[in-house]
Amino acid sequence: MKILSVFGTRPEAIKMAPVVARLRETPGVTSRVCVTGQHRQMLDSVLSTFGIVPDHDLAVMRPDQGLSDLFARVMTGVDALLAEWRPDYVLVQGDTATSTAAGLAAFFRKVAIGHVEAGLRTGDIASPWPEEANRRLTAVVADRHYAPTARARAALLAEGTAPDSILVTGNTGIDALLRTAEAVTAPGPALAAREARFGWLDPQVRTVLVTGHRRESFGAGFGRICDAVAALAERPGVQVVYPVHLNPNVRGPVFARLGGLPGVRLIEPLDYPDFVYMMTRADLILTDSGGVQEEAPVLRKPVLVMRDTSERAEAIEAGVARLVGTDTAAIVAAAVRLLEDAAAYRAMATGASPFGDGHASARIVADLLAQGGGPLPLRRSIKTRDFVPAIRPVAAAGLSA
Ligand code: UD1
Ligand code: UDP
Q: UDP-N-acetylglucosamine 2-epimerase domain location, by residue (predicted)?
């Protein structure tokens, strides 16, 4: 079975790394990796962490890239590769431009598609933007839907996705996190070296770790987030650590507003193991990241989500994450409460982890093998038949009325 994994950004690479590792060690599978290079430095850092040497690199990234240009470059590059190496399956992950453009390219070549992390929904096409649209588009063309949770499965079913094309697997990001967290916290020379490297962290004060990059917050939203971070950093006994995303629309306002403030340490994006280590050192995490919302609860770190919506409702319902929006006062109030109220803190730091058990990649690869190779039109016609029972009751009701 020939399987082509396509990814291009930091989070896709982290979440696909365990899948690629599993494919590599599975007999009967010929696995190839195509990176689009939608991210360059942040992708390369993950590739080197996990020892992935891509078979193909489309090198699509441009400074401050536009979404249509990016889509077009990914589709053209992936299409050429599909024409040359006809895989049985293309695997895409999540909701980035890379994943949707690669999914569409596969669909147009009639190559079957496995969608890793399928079924996340906010229900609001404007938030997160453009990711909510991206993931819905991918769901339309995917053949196998790897839903991380039962809620994601329910969202796919509600859209008419064939039940037997969905598998609840857990999130592959938790596979990566559990392995990495174990490695970075194991006592020994590596831990000692890392502690020395981050020796500037003051263990006497509370550490607030911040990340942010969402396109829908560019402009006013980021201004309010920065004001909140500045206000927190002014409080005694608090240090803010903020690895700043490489997007120029993030770096501009963040460095202008927060650069030079005594309580704020602005640093470059961390390599994944260093970031996991930093999460273990944090008392509180403020983020708009999807992946960090899933990871922080595993490490028993309360996470405040600086967005208006979340597709990770599982964490909010479990009480381990809170949606605070981008209002300055609301962010500061929620953070101060957690820093000052030990009971409120304990209630969020329970370790409840709704997103997986660390075996998602194994389930995905087993499922792919069970599909076998073979011509796509057969699989597509089966899927069409599966849709019929979902459609028929509505039509029948209409007719009898
Ligand atoms: C992208 C994804 C978003 C995901 C995020 C993870 C889309 C539309 N957006 O957003 O879903 O949550 O990645 O971080 O797919 N840059 C660099 N070097 C890098 C990475 C980025 O210089 O390693 C700069 C470039 O100027 C690039 C810009 O950041 O043009 C934006 O990158 P892009 O991937 O388009 O958007 P992100 O905001 O990173
Ligand atoms: N991450 C990292 N270094 C950093 C910040 C985040 O390795 O400096 C990791 C983090 O642990 C998570 C992923 O990057 O696994 C999240 O990526 P991002 O927030 O860019 O994207 P999203 O998850 O929002 O799509």
A: 22-366
Pick the CATH number of 189-348 from 3.90.650.10, 1.10.10.10, 3.40.50.2000, 3.30.2010.10: 3.40.50.2000
How far, in Å, CA of 316 to CA of 50, rounded?
30
Q: Ligand 2 pocket, 301 CB below 6 A? A: no
* pTM of structure: 0.94
Determine whether the shortest distance from the Cβ of 74 to ligand 1 is under 6 A: no
Contact predicate 98/12, CB 8 Å? yes
Measured between alpha carbons, how far is 96 from 75 in angstroms, rounded to an integer?
Answer: 13
- Residue of 10, 56, 214, 245 marked catalytic: 245
Q: 10: Cβ below 6 Å to ligand 1?
A: yes
Q: What is the mean pLDDT of each run of 10 residues along the chain (401 residues)?
A: 98 98 97 98 98 98 97 98 97 98 98 98 95 98 98 98 98 98 97 97 97 94 97 97 97 96 97 98 98 97 96 96 97 98 96 93 97 57 36 27 26
